[in-house]
Design a protein that fits this description.
The protein is an alpha+beta fold. The chain has one domain: 2-Layer Sandwich (Alpha-Beta Plaits), CATH 3.30.70.141. The protein is built from seven helices and four strands; from the N terminus they run E-H-H-E-H-H-E-H-H-E-H. It has helices at residues 10-14, 18-27, 42-48, 58-65, 80-88, 101-105, 120-130, and strands at residues 2-8, 31-35, 71-77, 114-116. Strands 2-3-1-4 form a four-stranded antiparallel sheet. The longest helix has 11 residues, at 120-130. The two termini are 12 Å apart. The structure holds adenosine-3',5'-cyclic-monophosphate (CMP).
Length: 140
């Protein structure tokens, strides 16, 4: 079993897509081990995306991610990182495959509905950015 961090981003929450995305998460066989609704401060968004701080879109990205409530979730299943990235699709919705969450719900490269960690190591680091290890529910 592997864990990854997903975020239902502010655009998807604002547009009322959270329920459908949660339903998709469960139907793809993920177990939700932690979840919360939170509005990030600009500083918190900058901390989460610190790896992108030199990118030209950093300001736009962190302003958007702190613009309203989002839903971070720790997801668990076999091959969670790769499987979640397959389910969400390409970063740019114009390149996202049919049937992916971004194809269905994303409106632009910046406002792309959901986030997924890009490696097992980052899945753990990113999960712990929102949830200390002791609040992540263990597999029973
Ligand atoms: P995410 O998977 O959350 O990881 C980094 C985010 O940066 C990415 O989704 C996009 O939302 C955003 N991003 C990446 N490239 C661009 C870009 N060229 N312009 C605006 N936002 C971008």
């Amino acid at each position: 079993m592997e864990r990854t961090l997903a975020i239902i981003k502010p655009d998807a929450v604002q547009n009322g897509h959270s329920g459908k995305i949660l339903d998709r998460i469960l139907s793809e066989g993920f177990a939700v081990r932690a979840m919360k609704l939170v509005t990030l401060s600009k500083t918190e968004a900058e901390g989460f995306y610190a790896v992108h701080r030199e990118r030209p879109f950093f300001g736009e990205l962190t302003t958007f991610m702190s613009s309203g409530p989002c839903i971070p979730l720790v997801l668990e299943r076999a091959d969670a990182v790769a499987k979640w990235r397959e389910v969400i699709g390409a970063t740019n919705p114009a390149d996202a495959a049919e049937g992916t969450i971004r194809k269905q719900f994303a409106t632009s490269m910046g406002e792309n509905a959901v986030h997924g960690s890009d490696s097992t190591e980052n899945g753990k680091l990113e999960s712990n950015y929102f949830f200390p290890e002791h609040v992540i529910v263990a597999n029973s």
